Every structure is written in structure tokens, then in C-alpha cells.
Amino acid sequence: MFSFFRTKAFEHDTDEALLTRFQQNGDLTSLSALYERYMPMVYGVCLKIFRDPVKSQDAVMSIYEELVRKAREHRVESFRGWLYVLARNHCLMEWRKNHRHRTDLHPPEDMNQFDAVEATFDVEMPVNAGKPLEKCLEELPGQQRQSVELFYFEEKSYKEIAALLSQEVGKIRSYIQNGRRNLKICLEKAGIRGIVE
Amino acid sequence: MNPSVQTDDARFLELLERWLRGDFNRSDEQELRTLVDADGFRREAWEGFIVLPEENHELRLVALRRHLRARTAPKRVPVRIWMAAAAVFVALAAAVYFLPRFGPKEPAPVARTSPVPAEQSGESKSAVAAPEAGYHPESPGSSESAIRPSAPAASTRAGDLAAPEERAAGDKPAGAMPVSVETAPSRMADSAPVVAGGPASYQQLPPTPPTLGGPAANMPAQPANPADAKAGRDANQQAEDMPADDETRTKKSEAAKPVAAPGQPAEGWEAFFRYLRRNARLTDAARNNNISGKVRLQFNVGPGGKPEKVQILKGLGYGCDEEAVRLVNAFSWTAGDGNPVTVEIPFVR
User: Fold this and answer.
1) Do A43 and B57 touch (CB under 8 A)?
2) Alpha-carbon distance A60 to B66, whole Å?
């Protein structure tokens, strides 16, 4: 199966081996193979900060340029952690540059709230969740509710749900994410904070 | 790096890919969640993806990957072009370096008539300069010392000369012995363009006929007989590997008595050294075997200005000795006084 995430070249080399090869020979192929390994994750980090796929895509490339420049001189102990910090800082700098005079927008750090939603929701979806859950489910818009129910109660995959509802997979992903968020907010309103917690 | 982190990352990316494709169910989500909770980098990445769940991130990532490879690839193409350019350059340099070694053998006579021929100055500078640079440091001192008009006793010289002749005769196969005498003139005629051709082509030289015609006159006129000519050609094949100086040694039998002026280069020593610098080239065999040095020759100059009784006092082998004899033979000399002339022919890289 075609996989756009996994890189076959240099598959067995460790990060540090590839990085050393780049530092010693200036071999860009090894550095780009290394970066390709983490590219989806870097892209995800950028997405979280920019909330914009186009900007994130650009940022991923400029982070690579920055990496080429910095990886030459910096002694890197753990490439993975270093890259994470590099990517995050790069995106935050970009973001602040563009939002200097617009204070109404949330800074990216506020997104921790978002994490909270994700984290709590995950564990609290037992089938016998009880009344508040059912009530909240009923409050969800039709498509969201259908998707969430199919995914969590009938354990269907996104594709199956997409086929059942004759929708695109992207839509289903969206329904489920938004459904969960709405559900969470609803449950919190009802005074329930993580049923299982 | 921690290997478990690496495998977890791989699993995370696999699940993320399935999430994007839609081949993703609840148990996958639970596994993904555990992986995401375990690591900050993964968590932020995941949070980024679920900000925009509808978006087709797959396409973005494919495009990114293409960009990244395009960004890296152009670096490789120029390297290949550079390699090709380097190969072409090396080939050119080799051509320039090796060509002059075949060239000068023909231009050699030209170099003598006109001091600086245009085609020689057009030669690769490195090839010409190298022998000069190698020669110059020693030439002032050795120009005097190299030429030692030594006068050893005639008897010892005769003994010296007789021995090589016997050796040369012994080298030849027994069957060739009877014909070898007849062969000499025909061989002479064969090799004339190479060995004797040089001096013969100079008008300003002292007349060469005596030396050229000498052996021929000694021998009965055998080319008239076709059968003999054939036999001569057979022997010629066998005699070919005989060094060229054997031929000059055969000539010593007709005792050339010194005439007037002592043996000297017709145009002076400087001209001779210049001539050597331009024309003394290592043979391929010597070059391949990392040989270089000097060949010391001793000879008398006959009445016609032609070197005779050429002896190799110190040889290099690998064809250099023969080449040295050829060079000396190809130069014109003033008629000698019977005292032998000693010269050193430098063969430098």
C-alpha cells in the first residue's frame, strides 16, 4: 500500500547517524530523509498553532530550511526533541509576527483547553454512561450524533460510517471531532467532569 | 535515541495515516490516544490534526514530501555534471600530456633546423617544461663533466666492443646466423626512415653517404635476388628485437679513422642539450615501470660526422638505451679525432 508517511530510504539508520552524516559530508539526502520521518508530526504542530493548512505547509518547508542551517553547527543530543522545539518555536514566532496587533485572537498556548476536552472524553465513553450522556447525545446535530454513535457504540471505522452516511471521510472526521467537543461541553454544563476520572 | 520512542512514533504515524484515510475505528483511536498521551511531540501533532479534521491533510503531506525531495534533488544533479566535467578535463589533460611523446620523434629534425618551431611551442607547457626543469639544475655542472673525452687504451676498447658483438650474435637463433649478414643492409633499408632518415634529411650536414652506404657496399648486392630478399625479410623478423645500437656496432668493423677536428656537436653543445631537452623522452615501458635517469654513451665520430662504435656505458633498459643511441645518431657531429666522446642522455619524467 502506498504510504506517504514512511520513508523507505535510510529506514534502518538512527536519527543521530543520519544527522552525523549530514554534518560530516553535508549530505542533504540524509538530512531530508531524516526530516521526512518527522514531517507529518511537524506539520501537525504547525497546524495546531496556525490552524491553517496552507500556512502550515509553508512553515514545514521553512522549518526545513532553518534545520539545514542550524543542524550544521549545533551539536544535537537528541534530534527528535531538538526538532520538536525548533518547529514549535518557529511556528510561534511566525504566528506572533502576524498577530502582533490583533489581541482578540487567542494565543496558541490557550489551546490547552482543547487538550482537556480530548483527554477527558476519551475515557468516558462507556456504553453505560448513564443519563446525562444520552441527553447530551440527543442534543447533538443529526450528522454529528449519527457519526459519534456509529463510531463509539457500533465501533465502525470512519470509512464504514462515510459509506453509511454517504459522506466523505473528511466530513466524518469532522463530525466526530466536533461531536465529541460538543458532547464534552454539554456534559460539563451538566456538572459532570470526566465520568470515570 | 530510545528505540521504543522510534517504534511508538512509527505506530503513531501509521494510525494517523489510517485516521486520515478513514480506515480507523474505536480501538485504533484508543491506541492512538495512549501513544499521544505518552509524548509531547506526538500530542501536539495530533492536536494540530484534529483542529481541522475535515481538511485533506494527506494531499498536503504528499505535496510537502515532493517539495522536500525537489529541494534536495537539484543538489545531486550538479554533482553528476561536475563529475562529467572532471572526467572530460582529466581526459583532455591526459591527451595533452601523452601526445607530445609521440609527436617529437618526427619533429626532432625540424627542431634542429629551426631553433623554435611553432608546433613545438604549441605543445603542452607542462610536458615541455618538465624535462627542462629536471635537466637545468644539473646541466651547468654536468655539461662539462658529462663530456669526458676519455682516451682508454685502444686494445681494451676493442675488447669491450668485441664482447657485445659476440653476445649479440649469440642471442640470435642459430638458424638465422647465416642470413644475418645479408640481412643487415635490408634492415638498414627498413629502418632507414627511423634511424638513418634523420641525418639523411639534412642538407647542411656533412655528407652521410659513406656511413649509409658503408654496410651496403660491404655486403654483396643481395636485394637483386628475390629469394634472398625473402630470407632477409624472415631474418628481419627475428632480428627486429635486436637493439638498434647493434646495427651501429656492426659498422665498427669498417674502422673509421679519425680525421681532423675533435668530435663535437655540429652546432655546439648548447644546441645539443637543447635538442636533448626537447627530444629525450622516456619510453612507455620505462614510464610504466617508474624508470628514469641517464644513459651514458661513448662513441667515436666518423669522418662523415656520424657517430660510430656507440657503446652504452650505463644503461637504463626499457628501450631507453636504444632511444639514446637513436638520438645521438640522429644528431650531426663534427668529424672526430679518434678520441671517444662520452655523453649522458637524461631521461626524466
Assistant:
1) yes
2) 12
